[in-house]
Amino acid sequence: MATKYPRVAAAHFAGRGLSAEVVRLAGSVEIAPGLGLADCILDVVETGRTLEENGLEVMEEVAASSARLIVNRASYHARREAIAQILERLRGAPA
Predict the structure, then answer these.
(1) Of the residues 32, 54, 59, 95, which has the fewest C-beta atoms closer than 10 A?
(2) Is 36 left (phi over 0), alpha (psi -120 to 50) or beta?
(3) Which residues are CB-contacts of 29 (< 8 A; sequence separation ≥ 6)?
């Protein structure tokens, strides 16, 4: 298995009572199976388009994730206008 997240992969398989050789790769992990570097990958996937382009398909979801914007209260009150601008930009950004 190739991944940017070797500890997550190892913990996932250990938790299921399975052993797997985990190879840490950086960059375009999805090309590893095509190059013969790994039989499968563990990666963060948003739409799955890159997986499809490389002849791969999702077999199992290991974890769900989401992004959060966190502001401490003091900064929020002291810089309310600047933070409001950041929030507006984020709301207008394409998903």
Answers:
(1) 95
(2) left
(3) 2, 3, 4, 41, 43
2-31 exposure pattern, b = at least 16 Cβ within 10 A, e = fewer: bbebeeebbebbeeeeeebebeebeeebbb
CB atoms within 10 A of CB 41: 22
> Looking at this protein, which amino acid is placed at residue 15?
G
Q: How many CB atoms lie within 10 A of CB 56?
A: 19
Give residue 94's pLDDT. 80
Evaluate if residue 47 carries a pLDDT over 90. no
Q: Per residue in 49-77, pLDDT tens?
A: 999 999 999 999 999 988 888 999 999 99
